[in-house]
What we know:
It is a single chain. A four-stranded mixed sheet has the order 4-1-10-9, with no helix packed on it. The chain has one domain (6-40, 67-215): Aromatic compound dioxygenase (Protocatechuate 3,4-Dioxygenase, subunit A, Sandwich), CATH 2.60.130. The radius of gyration is 17 Å and the shape is globular. It contains two helices and ten strands, in the order H-E-E-E-E-E-E-E-E-H-E-E. It is mainly beta.
Amino acid sequence: MKSLSRRKLIKFGITGGLVGAFTTKGSMAKALLPPTPAETEGPFYPVTPQDDKDFDLTRVQGRDGVAKGKYIIVMGSVLDSHGQPVSQATVEIWQANAKGRYRHPRDPNPAPLDPNFQGWAIVLTDENGEFRFKTVMPGSYPASPTWVRPPHIHFKVSKKGYAELTTQMYFPGEALNETDLLLNQKKPSERLLMIAKKRGPSETEALDVYEHAIVLKQKS
Ligand SMILES: [Fe+2]
């Protein structure tokens, strides 16, 4: 079975106290990775069928235009609690557009819809447990008169033999993270597991890249 390197786990920031659990040979001892915290699905889980649910959310099949907003790449990794990659996991992705509006009939936000933003994708992890998608930086949006949700992306991750996980990924350095009622219900150690790591842009990557690891719990 493939095993993610210690360096990679550290890069994802999910080793926590586990760094000392690696043996001198670099293999991992039996300590378990903490599971990615679950989060509410929220009210805007997609309900309207759409044909195009591929990894590029910045274009919609059959349309010439492209989505408005700042384009980003998200590189994800799905692991089990032993740090082993989970291949062929289904990763469902949904998010607001750059203005903070969901393509959902009950989103009350008056911000404009973007007909060229796909808003919803379903991808599979590869043999290394990895997935990636191109999208726009989601806008913040009002959840109540006194609460503005920070930019975030919703995930639902499933694979036979594992507990299905619904969660949300946040972005580093966002001031609204500090006041978000959902994120701040989590313990500080859990919050860290829900905030992506930023990489780039580099000379070879014109877009900002965010890396995020998701740890699933095996079904007992
Ligand atoms: Fe949301």
